[in-house]
Amino acid sequence: MISNLTEEGYNIGAIKHIHRENFTIDKEGTNTWRFSKAGSKVTIAFSPEEIATIKKKKTSNEDLEAIIEELKKEQLDIIFIEGFHGYISKKPDVLKIVTAKDSDDLKTTLSKTVAPILAITGIVAKNQHLAVGIPTVDLPKEGPQLLELLKKHLQPKITKASKKIR
Fold first, then answer.
1. Nearest one of 64, 58, 61, 62 to 22, comparing CA atoms
2. pLDDT, tens digit, for every residue of 137-153?
């Protein structure tokens, strides 16, 4: 979805929740890793093509809110947030795509999730359409359908190709 929306001119941001304890994007032996090991609480890696900020701290939902606020400054059209279900599921201002493994998992997840829900996907969507009043999308087979559902919630973008047509 990100690549398709980017091709159409949308500015996209993404936040990925990683559940593993002691996970780090920093690689052992690099200078940024050495800075952190020496005690730096915030290390910024700055190159001609990217900026990475590494903060060493325990995180909470308030940190997620702060990150979302920072991303809003980037003039993005959409921010994809993967994970954080316990927090995001209760937010009525966030459009959600619900994933589930099976019908029981879906029932439990939906009982804890407030609208708006764009679609249901995941293993539960394979070879079955669920009678829950929410579109069910089997991503490998119906990915474009989910993209079209999402685009109905976004402002249209004028792409380079559509500018030529005008």
1. 58
2. 998 888 899 999 999 98
